[in-house]
Amino acid sequence: MSHGSPLPRTTSRSPPRPSPLLEKLDSFEIAPKPWSEVSKALEDLKPSFNLSLDEEKPSFNPSSRPNTLIKDPTFDVVHGEVHETKSTTFELSSSSSPRRPPPPELTGLRTVRENNFVLRDRQERQGKKGEEQRKWKRRDPFEGYPERRPPGNPDGVVLYTTTLRGVRRTFEDCERVRQVMEGRAAEAGLEVDERDVALHGDYLREVRELAGEGATVPRVFVGGRYIGGAAEVVEVDETGKLGEMMRWLGRRNGGGEKGKRGRRDCEGCGGARFVPCLVCGGSCKVASEDAQGFKRCGSCNENGLVMCPLCH
Q1: Largest CA distance in the chain
Q2: Stretch (H or E) spanning 182
Q3: Are 158 and 220 in contact (CB under 8 A)?
Q4: What is the pTM of this model?
Q5: Are 150 and 210 in contact (CB under 8 A)?
Q6: Please, which residues bridge with residue 69 across strands?
Q7: CB 217 within 8 A of CB 169
Q8: Are 220 and 159 contacting, i.e. CB atoms less than 8 angstroms apart?
Q9: Pair type for strands 219-222 and 225-228
């Protein structure tokens, strides 16, 4: 805008300007020199300018036009023109009117929500949230182990083993598992119910019924769950899961199983759980009723042993 020249009129491409604004601008023969006077003059025209725009705007009917484009004119104070520079699109969804299909140039393109980076970020966030929930969830240490309850001590720590040295590998496995089980049980305040299949044939039948036909010793049962043989016990012990099972069982039983079967300080059996038969003295034979021969003792097992009356 040069000094002494009238303000330029609206070109044919520019939208029509409000009449109050034109009249006010035409009243100036020479443009004011200070910029503050121009700003003040424009501030005075704002009420009439907004009122004229409201009158020229078409009525807005959402039901008839689901997608409406509203353009807000902005006045250029430098060149004295009105330009359409701001536009806002309102997406109005109506149940009565169907949604318009996308334009041809956008056919086949995916939305922002389907972007690979957005999907990956969403999956990572959901994964972290799930990990946090699993982290705070109290895990059951016996999860995944089948339920097997040995008779006589269904919820305790039961170890089927042997003291015979007939098979070296079996004897060594039994000794190693016995040491592991006794150490972890002592830490949790529990006692190991050790059942020697070499002393009592019923124990061998029990372990085969629980672990499957053909199962050999050692076999371990904790809290009514079947842990496995020597390899499985060593694995869960190295990972720390066996100690967790023992502590969990000790808390559930309220301080352990002290005083139950298999105590090492028993004065009668010394922890072996068996003593020689008091009827036959361990010979498995007793005199017959006619005193002319002997018959099988019905009080002891095949080895002439009976359960210790003090700790059983």
Answers
A1: 154
A2: helix 168-188
A3: yes
A4: 0.55
A5: yes
A6: 89
A7: no
A8: yes
A9: antiparallel
Which helix (H) or strand (E) covers residue 89, if one does? strand 81-91
Tens-digit pLDDT string for the chain (312 aa):
445 555 555 444 555 555 565 565 555 555 545 667 767 777 777 776 555 555 555 555 555 554 444 444 444 444 545 444 444 444 444 445 566 776 776 666 666 667 777 788 888 888 777 666 655 566 789 999 999 999 999 999 999 999 999 899 999 999 999 999 999 999 999 989 999 999 999 999 999 999 998 899 999 999 999 999 999 999 999 999 999 999 999 988 765 444 344 456 788 888 788 999 989 988 999 988 877 788 899 999 999 999 988 887
| Domain spans in the chain, listed from the N-terminal domain onward | 157-253, 259-311
- Tokens representing 6 are 């009238």
CB 173 within 8 A of CB 254: no
Fold of 157-253: Glutaredoxin (3.40.30)
Contact 66, 92 (CB under 8 A): yes
The SS3 assignment for 296 reads strand
DSSP annotation of 140 reads: P
